[in-house]
Design brief:
The complex is a heterotetramer of chains A (about 100), B (about 170), C (about 400) and D (about 650).
Chain B lengths: L2 H22 L3 H22 L2 H26 L11 H25 L15 H10 L2 H22 L4
Chain C lengths: L1 H6 L1 H35 L15 H11 L10 H18 L9 E4 L2 E4 L8 H22 L3 H32 L4 H8 L14 H14 L11 H4 L9 H26 L17 H18 L4 H23 L1 H30 L5 H31 L1
Antiparallel strand pairs in C: 1-2
Helix pairs in contact in C: 2-3, 2-10, 2-13, 3-10, 4-5, 4-10, 5-6, 6-8, 6-14, 8-10, 8-14, 10-13, 11-12, 12-13
Chain D lengths: L8 H16 L5 H28 L5 E11 L2 E9 L1 H24 L6 H20 L3 H19 L6 H32 L12 H7 L10 H17 L7 H4 L5 H10 L4 H8 L1 H5 L2 H22 L5 H21 L3 H28 L17 H15 L5 H15 L4 H28 L16 H16 L5 H4 L5 H10 L11 H25 L11 H7 L4 H48 L7 H19 L1 H4 L1 H7 L1
Antiparallel strand pairs in D: 1-2
């Protein structure tokens, strides 16, 4: 019997770590991963709530989130590949010009 | 201290450690591996909560597709260890406190509301995939169709991005 | 003692079962290599292994010993973690995927703990299986990337791309079966195929398209000929495991054969009624089929062994033959054994058929070109499996009304 | 079908001709262009005749119809409203008839010119606008025609646009006309503001003139709305009809081809001003001050222009100034209240002045483009037809009986004589102008035809113009002989048919001429004849046998340089304007204020952007932190109650 608040705290911690990673990683791919991490944290919260409230909606939301994440990954990684090709660098601090 | 609680703590700690290592690892592929671990751990937690289908999807889609894409891209671009540049003053100085602030807010919110939430069901009661799919195709059918559109658009975008100029 | 056993049966029994299963699987893998080499040799009009032991029967053991004792060089500038992790992941996942496969219908009780043939009986076993296979990409990808070698990297890239691509087709081709069964549990899928009339109600008939898609995609998933580009020796030396030697290499090897077995089991369960007999249940005499096969085979081995050239063979083969005869007789004369063997017999028979097809294809088919592979997967296999899903659902709807 | 109900056909035909010629005629042979131009004009002339016939047959009922709505905004409505009454009839026939003749003439005159199709396209376009002008039943449509003819005049004056003088003259005409039109527009606005309508007459008596008729007249010297409006309209009229002070463009307009001078700058367009004044006679009769101004301006112009005409050496310039002075007569007539007389003179003037111009054109044609009278002389025997026609025209304009101008000018002078308070002065000046007129016209005749030839045979071989030029001359000669006979019975105590014909239009506005007894009438006409004779004699005295260009000094020089009016305008108006526009408007306002503002705005933007852009470092991590800040703020807002148990207690 696990209290829901445990799950929520876990998800909060993961989310915070995701934020930290998002701010402190320089590699653009890793930053993208940080976003995924945050999404996962949110998913966890969703499922926890849907369990504790006895509704399945939360899990449906999780499915949607996963779909969105998939689409995001497809496009985002494409962009990343292009950027890396053009700038010869994955460090977001080196990729700071709008023009090529 | 029941079995499910033990499992929870094991998985939770695993997830947190993996997330921390995601931050600490210098090489993107190690970060990716850590993230995969996080996801698997979360899948385990879903199972623990009885959301079996979500758990499976979590591993299949996140672990099996998205993260594979990440690893694939890392290998393709043959990314090397990240250089710890610090051009951004903002990130350097304001980053940590702000992250803490956010975490603090969330923690505060949870702390205030913890009592008002019923405890999660033990892993015994599984939400059958049937009910999930029924919900998905009755109440959430429009969002569902929209997601299909989203996927289509994403595919097109990926193709456009990937093709060479000619 | 016994009360201890009964108390912790829920732990002990699975562990025992796992041990047994792993032992069996490893042995089968080992002898699968032997069979493969023999069959291909005969396809190519050679003898194949025949020095180590009679008909080279001890060759697998020799290989195993060699793997264990061989030197294990560590290439320079490899990413140690990933380099060591990759084979373990691969093997682990390969073996784990077997855990959810039911081998037989029976339930039996050990130490008052009721269990059945097969390790875990999850109600979403198919999903679990797919999740595990999904993860199995990492082994190869990491191996290719970690070992700091062009060939490996290319192999890894190829295989990861290939596996992602064909995973879609694999999953979609199964959806038809799922629609018919309406359940994720492999056991219930098999049960749903069972009706008095034997093979008539197997999924293969309504799902022939699905089966073909599934089988092709599965071969691609297991990186076997004609889809074995990740290890195309003509281009990539040995692909992702070029830099691996001795036991780590063995792990990849074992994992590959285990995957073959898993896939064959899956095909059997999903489309060929798992452990169900192809004959109507009314035909009870078919229950003696195992004995009818085993006893003549044993006799043949016996008399073939007597005339073997060296003494070891003349001693060993007749032994094996007589053992087989005894087993066959036992199966024939003890009813409970007879009942117990029915499921596994058919199951193993079908699985063996699929494994043979694997080997057969390797002996005969040429390898795809990479672009052909991709365009085939995306432009043909995927649409066909989608069409199959649509068709099935339409038919089911039509049945409903 | 009765043409009246389709009155729009009359102006439409020339428009079609113009469009066809202008768009397609570039590569057509002259014959095709001719057939289109003449066909359209002639057809519209015939239609006009038919319309008039129906009008007469219909018992002279003023016809008015609103064909198409053009502008409808609030209580303002302007449409394609055409009307046909006696005044319009006169103008219509003059315009179409004389226009048709001049078209015929042009086919001969322009035969060897470039841009043939262009010329006829313009000419037809002019016809269209002129017809619109005369047929219009409201001020807006009238103004359309007004501007349109201005445009055509500009185009045709600058027809030889390669010649700088020509294009300059065109621009001058256009700009001077703008000044007048400005006044005209102000007048229109004033009228609309006062009467909330710009229709002349309306069945529901809501038209401008209907209301004016109801309104009380301004007293003499009182500048009421009506007076101001009338004066403003008159400003426009002075612009269009070349009266003081805006006459300066007309002499320069002689740069255009001669048929153009004949049609536009003698017969039709320049009379538009007179037409407008006559058309809005109701307004003027209610504004005696304006009437008085009109009379004075007209009289002054008549005399002033005549004096300048005395010494001009360019044959067309002479005619131009004579035109100005004759227009002055018309305004004099209108000003003294004899609108019918003014219109009468307008008609006759259209005939004989067109005749004179065309004859002059024929002479120029014969002389191979020579326009200076001092290089002519002794042409009488060589080009008889032209000479005779021109002589007819001269006699007519000089005012010898029984030629046209005798009757019309006589009527005007008589009206002026009877006018109060300053009638006598006006009459005297007018008479003097008449003397001068006959003088310079006969001077022209003598210098051109009789004195011994002052040109070189070898360079110019004089030849009579072709038929298609001479025949219109003859017709016009005949018209300028008989044109005035409508008023013939008036001499013998009978009644003036022309005035009577127009009387339904002007009605009460008249009243000057009839008052005086027939005896005085006779005396006045005799005096006029005597004056004309005097001018003839003086001219004959001065210009016969061998003449040479007089050395110009003193008064002669002043006259020869047209009183330096152009120079004065240049100094007083143009110069200051140019200075103003260059130094104030351009340098100060445009470059200083406007550009300055724009530049400073741009610069300010640049500065701001330059300072702010440092936030836009392009460094994604900084952006991430910004997002984070935003998130913190949002969380703070959302969770405020959470952090405040006091607030939150109730919610739980």
């Amino acid at each position: 019997m696990v209290p829901t608040s445990y799950y929520l705290i876990l998800s909060a911690v993961l989310f915070g770590l995701g934020i930290v990673a998002f701010v402190f990683k320089r590699n653009i791919i890793t930053i993208f991963m940080a976003i995924e991490l945050m999404l996962n944290a949110v998913n966890l919260a969703f499922v926890a709530f849907s369990q504790s409230l006895g509704k399945t909606d939360g899990e449906v939301f999780v499915l949607f989130v996963i779909v969105v994440a998939a689409a995001e990954a497809a496009v985002g990684l494409g962009i990343i590949i292009l950027t890396a090709r053009n700038r010869r660098s994955l460090n977001v601090e080196r990729v700071d010009l709008l023009k090529l | 201290m029941s079995a499910s609680l033990i499992i929870f703590f094991v998985l939770a700690l695993l997830a947190i450690f993996a997330a921390v290592s995601l931050i600490l690892q210098r090489h993107p592929i190690h970060s990716a591996l850590s993230l995969i671990v996080v996801m698997v751990a979360l899948a385990g937690l879903y199972l623990l909560m009885g959301a079996e289908f979500v758990a499976a999807v979590q591993i299949i889609v996140y672990g099996g597709a998205i993260m594979v894409l990440f690893v694939f891209v890392i290998m393709l671009l043959n990314a090397e260890e990240e250089e710890r540049t610090n051009f951004s003053k903002m990130a350097r100085f304001a980053g940590i406190p702000l992250a803490l602030a956010i975490a603090g807010f969330i923690a505060a919110a949870i702390a205030r509301n913890a009592g008002s939430l019923p405890a999660a069901e033990p892993s015994g009661a599984l939400t059958s995939t049937k009910t999930l799919s029924n919900l998905l195709f009755s109440d959430f059918v429009y969002p569902f169709e929209l997601t299909s559109f989203l996927i289509l658009v994403a595919i097109l975008g990926a193709i456009v991005l990937a093709q060479r100029e000619n | 003692m016994t009360d201890f056993l009964t108390k912790y049966a829920f732990l002990i029994v699975p562990i025992i079962k796992i041990a047994i299963l792993v032992f069996i699987i490893l042995t089968v893998d080992a002898y699968l290599t032997w069979i493969e080499r023999k069959v291909i040799a005969h396809i190519q009009a050679r003898w194949g292994p025949h020095r180590v032991g009679p008909h080279g029967l001890l060759q697998p053991l020799a290989d195993g010993v060699k793997f264990i004792f061989k030197e294990d060089p560590l290439p320079s500038h490899v990413d140690k973690l990933a380099y060591f992790l990759a084979p373990f992941i691969t093997l682990m996942l390969a073996l784990t995927s077997l855990a959810v496969i039911p081998f037989g219908p029976q339930k039996f009780t050990v130490f008052g703990y009721e269990t059945h043939v097969g390790i875990a009986d999850v109600n979403i076993s198919l999903l679990v299986l797919f999740s595990i296979t999904a993860l199995s990409v990492y082994g190869i990808a990491l191996a290719g990337w970690a070992s700091n070698s062009k060939y490996s990297l290319l192999g890894g890239l190829r295989s990861s791309a290939q596996m992602i691509s064909y995973e879609l087709a694999l999953t979609l081709s199964v959806v038809g079966v799922l629609l018919i069964a309406g359940d994720f549990s492999l056991r219930s899928i098999v049960v749903q195929q069972s009706s008095g009339h034997g093979l008539l109600t197997w999924n293969i008939f309504p799902q022939i398209i699905g089966f073909l898609c599934f089988y092709i995609a599965a071969i691609a998933e297991t990186n076997r000929v004609p889809f074995d580009l990740p290890e195309a020796e003509s281009e990539l030396v040995a692909g992702f495991h070029t830099e691996y030697a001795s036991m780590k290499f063995a792990m990849f090897f074992i994992a590959e054969y285990t995957n073959m077995i898993t896939v064959s089991c899956l095909a059997t369960i999903l489309f060929f009624g798992g452990w169900l007999s192809p004959f109507p249940t009314a035909w009870t005499f078919t229950h003696y089929l195992p004995s009818v096969i085993l006893i003549p085979f044993g006799i043949w081995v016996f008399f073939d062994g007597i005339r073997y050239e060296n003494l070891f063979g003349r001693l060993m083969l007749p032994g094996v033959g007589s053992a087989l005869v005894v087993i066959g007789a036992a199966l024939a004369f003890f009813p409970f054994l007879n009942d117990a063997i029915q499921g596994p017999f058919w199951f193993l028979a079908k699985v063996f058929t699929f494994l043979f097809v694997y080997i057969w294809m390797r002996g005969t088919l040429p390898r795809f070109r990479y672009d052909q592979l991709m365009s085939f997967g995306w432009k043909f296999l995927l649409p066909v499996s989608i069409a199959n899903v649509v068709l099935t659902s339409i038919v089911i709807l039509w049945r409903m009304h | 079908m009765p043409i009246l109900n389709h009155l729009w056909i009359i102006p439409l035909l020339p428009l079609l001709g113009s469009a066809i010629n202008g768009l397609l005629g570039k590569d057509w042979p002259k014959s095709t262009v001719n057939s289109v131009a003449l066909g359209s004009t002639g057809l519209s002339f015939l239609c006009a005749l038919e319309a008039v016939r129906e009008f007469v047959a219909g018992g002279l009922q003023p016809f008015r119809r609103e064909f198409v709505d053009w502008i409808v905004a609030g209580n303002f409505r302007a449409g394609l409203d055409l009307q046909l009454d006696q005044l319009t009839v006169v103008m219509l026939l003059v315009v179409t008839g004389v226009g048709f003749l001049i078209h015929i003439y042009s086919t001969g005159y322009m035969a060897h010119e470039g841009g043939y199709y262009r010329f006829f396209s313009y000419l037809n376009l002019f016809m269209f606008f002129m017809l619109i002008l005369v047929l219009a039943a409201n001020f807006v449509l009238l103004f359309v025609g007004w501007e349109g003819v201005g445009l055509c005049s500009y185009l045709l004056i600058g027809f030889y646009f390669l010649r700088k003088s020509a294009s300059d003259a065109g621009k001058k005409a256009f700009i001077v006309n703008r000044i007048g039109d400005f006044g005209f527009m102000l007048g229109m606005f004033l009228l609309f503001r006062t009467f909330h309508s710009l229709d002349f007459n309306r069945p529901d008596l809501k038209g401008v003139f209907d209301q004016v008729a109801q309104a009380p007249a301004d007293a003499m010297g009182q500048f009421g709305i009506l007076t101001v409006a009338a004066l403003l309209l008159f400003v426009g009229a002075t612009g269009k009809s070349a009266q003081i002070p805006l006459y300066v463009w007309l002499p320069d307009a002689m740069e255009g081809p001669t048929p153009v001078s004949a049609l536009i700058h003698a017969a039709t367009m320049v009379t538009a001003g007179v037409y407008v004044v006559a058309r809005s006679h109701v307004l003027y009769t209610h504004a005696p001050t304006a009437m008085y101004v009109v009379a004075i301006v007209g009289c002054a112009t008549a005399f002033f222009a005549a004096t300048i005409g005395l010494v001009q050496s360019d044959i067309k310039k002479v005619l131009a100034y004579s035109t100005v002075s004759q227009l002055g007569y018309m305004f004099l007539g209108c000003g003294v209240g004899a609108f019918s007389a003014g219109i009468f003179h307008l008609m006759t003037h259209a005939f004989f002045k067109a005749l004179l111009f065309l004859s002059a054109g024929s002479v120029i044609h014969a002389m191979g483009g020579e326009q200076d009278m001092w290089h002519m002389g002794g042409l009488w025997s060589k080009i008889k037809v032209t000479a005779w026609c021109m002589l007819f025209g001269t006699i007519a304009i000089a005012g010898f009986p029984p030629f046209a101008a005798f009757f019309s000018k006589d009527a005007i002078l008589a009206a002026a004589y009877g006018h109060e308070p300053a009638g006598k002065i006006l009459y005297g000046v007018g008479l003097l102008a008449a003397v001068l007129t006959s003088f310079y016209m006969f001077r022209l005749i003598f210098l051109t035809f009789f004195t011994e030839q002052r040109y070189d045979e070898h360079h110019v071989h004089v030849h009579e113009s072709p038929k298609n030029m001479t025949i219109p001359l003859m017709i016009l000669a005949f018209l300028s002989l008989t044109g005035g006979w409508f008023a013939l019975p008036a001499l013998f105590g009978g009644k003036d048919y022309f005035a009577e014909f127009l009387s339904p239009v002007f009605g009460s506005a008249e009243g000057a001429g009839e008052a005086m007894p027939a005896s005085l009438e006779h005396i006045l006409s005799v005096v006029a004849v005597v004056a004309a004779t005097a001018g003839l004699l003086v001219a004959w005295r001065m210009y016969r046998g061998k003449v040479k260009r007089g050395t110009s000094e003193g008064l002669h020089k002043l006259l020869y340089n047209k009183y330096y009016v152009d120079e004065i305008y240049q100094a007083l108006v143009v110069g200051p304007l140019v200075w103003l526009s260059r130094n104030v408007l351009w340098k100060a306002v445009d470059e200083g204020v406007i550009d300055g503002t724009i530049h400073s705005i741009a610069h300010g933007t640049a500065v701001v952007g330059d300072t702010v852009r440092h936030a836009q470092s392009g460094n994604t991590r900084s952006y991430a932190v910004w997002v984070l800040i935003g998130a913190v703020v949002v969380f703070a807002i959302i969770f405020w109650p959470v952090l405040h148990p006091a607030l939150f207690g109730g919610a739980r």
